[in-house]
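Recall from the previous lesson that a structure prediction takes nothing but the amino acid sequence as input. Here we apply that procedure to D-3-phosphoglycerate dehydrogenase from Sphagnum jensenii. The sequence below is the only information supplied.
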Amino acid sequence: MAATAMVGSLHSAAAMQCSSSGDMLVQQQHGVGQRCLVPTSNEVMGKPTVLVSEKLGDAGIELLRKVANVDCSYNLTQEELISKISLCDALIVRSGTKVTREVFEASNGRLKVVGRAGVGIDNVDLQAATEVGCLVVNAPTANTVAAAEHGIALLTALARNVAQASASMKAGKWQRSKYVGVSVVDKTLAVMGFGKVGSEVGRRAKGLGMHVIAHDPYASAERARALGVELVSFDEALARADFISLHMPLTPTTDKIFNDESFKKCKKGVRIVNVARGGVIDEDALVRALDSGIVAQAALDVFTVEPPKEDNKLVQHENVVVTPHLGASTKEAQEGVAVEIAEAVVGALAGELAATAVNAPMVPAETIAELAPYVTLADKLGRLAVQLVSGVAGVKDVKVTYWSSRADDDLDTRLLRAMITKGLIEPVSSAFINLVNADYVAKQRGLRISEERQPSDGTIEYPLDRIQVKLYHVASKFASAIPDHTSEITLEGKVKDSVPHLTKVGSFSVDVSLEGSIILCRQVDQPGMIGKVGSVLGEEDINISFMSVGRTSPRQHAVMAIGVDNEPSKTVLQKLGGIPAIEEIVFLKL
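The prediction returns the following tokens.
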């Protein structure tokens, strides 16, 4: 399995199905936007379908069209989105489209990636995406400078009453004395959220001669010091600031974090700029703070509900400057975001983990490439192990042991664990498992997977020597898979020449390539057994790809592992089981 194809089987064959919508589409007018709903005969079949529900730059669309059918359907209602989504492998949105649990459920498992053309992902139900194994990616870097520039523009516009003075002049007035402003030099700016945009705002504010402090519980103190910025507590930031610039995400913790209580802690006459998320401010509380004079002015690019209602008190307030969510609206940023999100979506559809994935652990590309054959091994060991389980109790406790000559911090096993989970669950359920949802699905099913690392005498050139999978407290269809004096189904495997091999079944050493399906036979070790088994399979036109025999000692018990290219019938298995000296037999499908 190639490196790109195996990432959780991030996006297996389902991702490459095509729908009735494509990029060669007849555009139809619908309100202020466009609908591209009618496929033409030029549509390319066999490609994945990407639905773009909000305007995306031409460079991004062209990049998508190289590998996918692109359906540009703008201004969809929620009901229309839900009705279309089952025909799509990927969805690209901005902030206006709500990708809810209902959308993910309506996709019937086909939707493999949601791309957010921008930074914030509060309009995407991440929990629902994770549950169904849908990767969510964003474009966090391309609009950073644009958002920071807009924040500074609003800050200086507040300080000098630019918007109000302009409106006054357009109304035929000349009111110089009314619009006396304040200088920003030597004023203290509190940057609330010191990530990419916040730090760029801080950098520019320093250039304007401002003192910059910041609050962010996750920010690097070293990075802040390098920019000449002091990290402080939330309350200290409120108490010291002359200007406050908001750059925090909207989360349950930050929802309406600026409320009546927060504003009471602010310096009287503070000025507030918000180019982050509208929901971080309690809008009614801000109106009260403006009316009382606690907040002298506010500049808002974002709102709790967008667009806000015409009678919104903040929009109509004399001391508030408003813009219609223009933070990322520069030509350069729009093209950059389009390309960044298109590249992430294209990569995800090809099975690659995007560096901007927000609901999957980040595994470096070089690690993915190096672990590719071991990922296949992990998946197949899981599939073999679960097929050996008998009874109705199911698998609950699993232990995975990795033998490696590398240091613990030089072996990332998250992808391997996800693939073992995939192998254990998919053959006995309708679930689709990948790196995104493996841990979630395991938890939901009560599957506990522990991991252990053991030193190996092998070379550090290869990440692993072998992998062992043990299933505890289960009965087995093949008793030999449980070593003597234990109660665990035990399998081991390793990679040889980039091909995964099964190397141990219970206490029996074998060596069979995991490139097809396998028949396991336990027999009394005696001459002629290989020939007898081979004859039965040959008579039934079943081709043997590999055969390996492991025994405890001569003339005692042995396990024969036979790789076959096609599935034997029940009659064939009965014939094999009827050979004298064969004590048990099982067929395992890969």
